[in-house]
Amino acid sequence: MDSNLGMETAGGTAGITVDIALFPLDTLKTRLQSPYGFFGSGGFRHLYKGIGTAAIGSFPSASVFFCTYDTIKKMFSKQVEPAYLPAVHMGAACAGEIGSCLIKVPIEVVKQRQQAALEKLSPLLICKRAIETEGYVGLYRGFITTVLREVPFVLIQFPIWEWLKAQWYYAKKENLNVIEVAVCGSISGGIAGGVTTPLDVAKTRIMLEKKIHSQAECARLHTSAMLTSIYREQGIHGLFAGFIPRTLWITLGGAVFFGAYQAAVEFCSKFDTVR
């Protein structure tokens, strides 16, 4: 099996596994961050609304991320001193995330609008409404904010993940197994998820905004303006809305994501050996 194809398969498998397994936590997080309020967005009802949309987007977006990340990491890791490896991991993760967002953002827009709507909305209807009111750019509402959320997230998560794996490897003197890689992913994900919660709140609010009728409403959709608005209206509590389900989701998701990724990598390696 081609190495890039193997990485795409491993990354895609990891992405779809975590999104489906932990989807209710993602729905609760979205509703807690919604400008319409938790119960106004559905409360505890229908926690699997939008899961089909999430499943469709998970595999390709995660595949693009890991294929880019691993390619860049392998390309530069052997050319730099060990002290500079965190910078390589950061750069690779940023490049992977930006590429992934090109697929992820339209899926996220549709999914979150399904999660926060009281009525049942089909993905096609949401896409149609977005295109009618804003053009195709409406499907990329919140793209910059998503990138601004994801880049700091991976800048924190991946160096910590790689560092934890390296320290465990040096202590153990042998390669880590799936469970150990999953633990490293869980810890790094939980830390990154908690720190970047305000950016996630801003992204959710921007994606859930209704029709834009004025320049003032358009200006509100900028990340800094949205963060300022949330702080003025709700204070620090508003900026960290959904902190518990987000952190729990990413902590558990980190374990599932990196565990599934490692398992898929090992499977692909065995396939290559057998072939």
Automatic annotation (TrEMBL):
Report the subcellular localization: Mitochondrion inner membrane
Recorded topology in the membrane:
Multi-pass membrane protein
Q: Does the keyword Membrane apply?
A: yes
Q: Which UniProt keywords apply?
A: Membrane, Mitochondrion, Mitochondrion inner membrane, Repeat, Transmembrane, Transmembrane helix, Transport
The terms describing its cellular component in GO are: mitochondrial inner membrane
What coarse category fits the chief subcellular location reported for this protein? mitochondrion
First and last residues of every Solcar repeat: 2-75, 83-167, 176-267
Q: Which residues belong to the signal peptide in this entry?
A: none
Database matches in Pfam families: Mito_carr
Work out whether the entry's keyword set contains Nucleus: no
Which family does the record claim for this protein?
Answer: Belongs to the mitochondrial carrier (TC 2.A.29) family.
Query: How is this protein named in the record?
Result: S-adenosylmethionine mitochondrial carrier protein
